[in-house]
Write a structure and sequence with these properties.
Elements: H1 9-35, H2 38-41, H3 55-61, H4 66-69, H5 84-91, H6 102-110, H7 130-136, H8 140-144, H9 161-169, H10 192-203, H11 213-216
Helix pairs in contact: 5-6
Length: 218
């Protein structure tokens, strides 16, 4: 009986299977990597703004507290974007004729808010409150990164479900005393977990309930 397959057929079959598995594995890694890339998560993306506002200058160099501009962060669901009047508290006295601040002056004259492009934005199906997180000891830096070092604001974290759940499963390392909530450079004095556990006990955080679906999806 004539031989149907050549002596090298088995080798070619093995190589083909190996190549197929390599392509499948590489494709999976590529898809996962692309899904987690800054392009898809919008991390480190600096959207154009009507005014080139620098957190590095205002919060870092001048030391302006986050709550001066984001006045609703301790009392409401949203941190809030500062009204034009907040900007003009200083800029009616300094840099009064700066061309890059013309949109601010025009906003005040027209009684229209500055059309800022929101950087830290969650999907509509996610329920999130700034005031609750602040009250429980979660600092601004934990979610927004070192915003005091950003010349132009960008999203430091992807705000994925994984990111939120990682903290909700074990929030203690991310908790800090209330007088350091807006301190971007704050580090725990000793062990982060021990200090966080003390804060959690003081604030009455209910461990085990933070990962229930209804906490973030209502």
């Amino acid at each position: 009986m004539a031989q149907i397959f050549s002596p090298a057929a088995d080798t070619w079959l093995r190589m083909s299977l190996l190549a197929a598995l390599s392509i499948l594995a590489g494709g999976t890694v590529g898809i996962v990597g692309f899904a987690r890339s800054s392009y898809m998560t919008s991390t480190e993306f600096r959207p154009p703004q009507p005014v080139p506002f620098s957190h590095r200058h205002h919060a870092g160099e001048l030391g302006i507290d986050c709550r001066y501009c984001h006045s609703g962060v301790e009392t409401s669901r949203r941190a809030g974007l500062p009204p034009t009047e907040t900007c003009m508290t200083c800029h009616s006295q300094i840099w009064t004729n700066a061309s890059m601040l013309e949109p601010v002056r025009q906003s005040l004259a027209d009684h229209q808010p500055i059309p800022w492009t929101r950087v830290a934005k969650l999907p509509d199906y996610v329920f999130f409150r700034h005031d609750v997180h602040i009250a429980k000891g979660v600092g601004c830096e934990s979610c927004h990164g070192r915003i005091d070092q950003m010349a132009l604001t960008y999203r430091a974290e992807a705000f994925t479900m994984e990111f939120c759940l990682e903290c909700h499963r074990d929030p203690t390392p991310n908790l800090r005393p209330q007088d350091h909530i807006t301190d971007m450079a704050w580090k725990p004095a000793a062990d982060a977990r021990s200090e966080g556990e003390a804060t959690a006990a003081h604030e009455g955080i209910r461990f085990g309930e933070l990962t229930h679906c209804y906490v973030c999806h209502r």
